[in-house]
Amino acid sequence: MTLNPKTRNLFVRTASGIVYVALMVAAVFTPWVAVPLAFFFALVGIFEFYKLCNDPSLRPHFGFWIVAAVWLLECFLNMEVLDLEGGPSIPWAVMACVAGLAIFLPELIGKSEQAMSHVGLGFLAQMWIVVPLSVLFFLWIPQHPAMVLAFLILIWMSDTAAYVFGSLFGKHKLAPNISPGKTWEGFLCSCVFTVGLAIGLSYIPLFQQAGMPLWGWLVFSLIIQVFGLFGDLTESLFKRKAGVKDSGNIIPGHGGVLDRVDSILFATIPAYLFQLAVSN
Fold first, then answer.
1. CA angle 239, 241, 242 (to 5 degrees)
2. Which of 165, 140, 129 is nearest to 264 (CA)?
3. Alpha carbons 224 and 150: distance in angstroms, whole number
4. Residues 264, 231: contact at Cβ < 8 Å?
5. Distance (Å, whole) CA 58 – CA 80
6. CA separation for the pair 118, 104 (Å, rounded)
7. Distance separating alpha carbons of residues 176 and 242, to the nearest angstrom
8. pTM more than 0.85
9. How far apart are CA 68 and CA 123, in angstroms?
10. Structure confidence at residue 16 (pLDDT)
11. Residue 179 phi, psi (nearest 5)
């Protein structure tokens, strides 16, 4: 029996989505999944960002961006959060300095007329992609795995709810010049749904371990909703400027890494800081 292209694409998209979710959930509870997954997402994300820039003059800089990303990931990894035996003990501050130097180095040894633009894009790549992923995998997961699981559930379900409710009731475009498919109706209905889901999670013993009060869960869910939306719109803006539909094609049926983690990139740090402030 031969599947038609639409059915085959749905099957591939579903299968790869299940694998993605399984890996993310495994990373929450298994450092040996979290570490390689963080490096994979960060380095592939840097490559996809480089491609979205669509600027041949950035070619000499890409290798240095990768070096900066690796050192920045190592910086967070060596902040005595994960106990990985056998690795060299290098002060994390030194690693951060090396990462910053790697971004500046091409301009210090070259003769570019776009130095400010190149350095700015290099720092944007690290701050937008590498730092949030480092915070998620190397700081938040070891400290509060249950809250990270709640964070992922809420952000995934908010995206799904926005799509479903937007398809059913959407009439007013939220950002027509960036993402024509998003509507105010989908966003507001998703907010209500996500808040309700957060209230439900707050009664589950696994998530009660974080010690967050009910009002904290409400704010936590709204932070995820709002910042997740900004993350989605930001990546959509970059893709629109680059004239592409997806940031890449490494995840069958879903596009690139940035297409999967765009909401997570913006929402991780504010959600992490809020959870720490409320729970402590």
1. 60
2. 129
3. 11
4. yes
5. 35
6. 9
7. 17
8. yes
9. 9
10. 81
11. -140, 90
